[in-house]
Structure prediction request, 481 residues.
Amino acid sequence: MSGEELTYAPAWRLAKMIRARALSPVELTEHFLRRIDAYEGGLHAFITVAADLAMKAARTAESAVMRGDALGPLHGVPIAIKDLNATKGIRTTQGSLLHSDFVPDADDIPVERIRRAGALILGKTNTPEFGWKATTENLLGPACRNPWDPSRTPGGSSGGSAVALAAGLTPLALGGDAGGSIRIPASFSGVYGLKPSAGRVPASYEGSGGWRALSQNGPLANNVRDAAVLLQVLAGPDLRDALCLREAPPDFSTALETQSLKGVRMAWSPRLDDRPVDKEVESVTAAAISVFQDLGATVEEAVPEIHTECLIDVFATLLLTDMALSLAPALESGATGLLPPKLVRWVTEAAAWPATRFSSRLREREWHRQRMDAFFQRYDLLLTPTMATLPFSLEENPTVIDGEAVDPDWGFTPFLYPFNLSGQPAASIPCGFSSAGLPVGLQIVGGIGREWDVLRASGAFEAAAPWSNRRPRLTVPSPPE
Prediction:
């Protein structure tokens, strides 16, 4: 396999070749490190590149293959890890100057499972401080850039992981999603991303901050099967996480064994709560709906009862109250200069909120979950645009969408945070491109615990409307003068 073929080869196929001794983990890791060295300077997908540790792990992996040891499902395959996840021996900043030199002495649970599966960590990908916003900038260094147009954002907060995949700097990546942070950059960067059901992937409590009740770690991948394989590695109960689901997960890869969607009931919601959507996004996603009908699904336009303005307040209250608690030591010590001023303002305000505000928002969340559970009694899956806009210029969040004023922090993500609050699994799959060649994502949402349904629909759509053969054209950045 040539270097060009290796770049976007499916991770599951790379693992198969390694097991068959047809591919060297050392040569594979060297290939991706060379690409990082060539293109990272123009993209800023990584906060830390762990080249020496990756090569050491690759040599160990190769020795295991040659000895005939039992091998994990991702043995010898490189992976990039979002910098919110603790990695033993590798700097973990959480995107913040507060932790710029922190090196954990233990992995968190998802990373522990990834290593056990045999994957090799290339490095830690770019993220905003503590994943606090939907684009990928922080005070540690340059903003992460979209490989389809470097003047634009890839979204966030798992922006670095999505960019590394789209640019061919890694064959697989780990992200986290508390309000859209896997699906936003998946849509903006033209890759596949899946937020699992609440509790499907266990997490460590230490250092988890304000995302525990809302966030799930999940796969970002260049094809659906890779995402299914990584989800299988990540999923399953762990008694160290009191919030995780206790039942064993299904075999997610079996969801991809059929391309028929006969009998599947789908709802198509081009808008939620009448929030504005860019006309090109709406047009591209609407055109994709016929693919599901051709595959045998029943699709009808139906909009779930989602009160977006109310849910923004619920989401912000739950998130910021907990972040205020987590960041209290830093604020009390006078370290505010190490944090973005807007984040400091938000968590300072949140610290003064009365307990009744938090309690009332929990009630609103439960009512929302009830409404979503009822909706998914009528439908197996919900289809929506992933984003309300196309990728926009760096640090220029849209204030107007389709001629209507929107909040720059929340207006471009109306389809996402509702399903963090309800706990449903949701994926973003590439479904086309704008007239300017920018990727557009379609969101597929399933019932609680039904990742299998989401993967089945995703795999069938991918087979019927392939997207992985279209990649961004990268340029090697000029060296600094």
The chain has one domain: 11-464. The domain at 11-464 is CATH 3.90.1300.10 (Amidase signature (AS) enzymes).
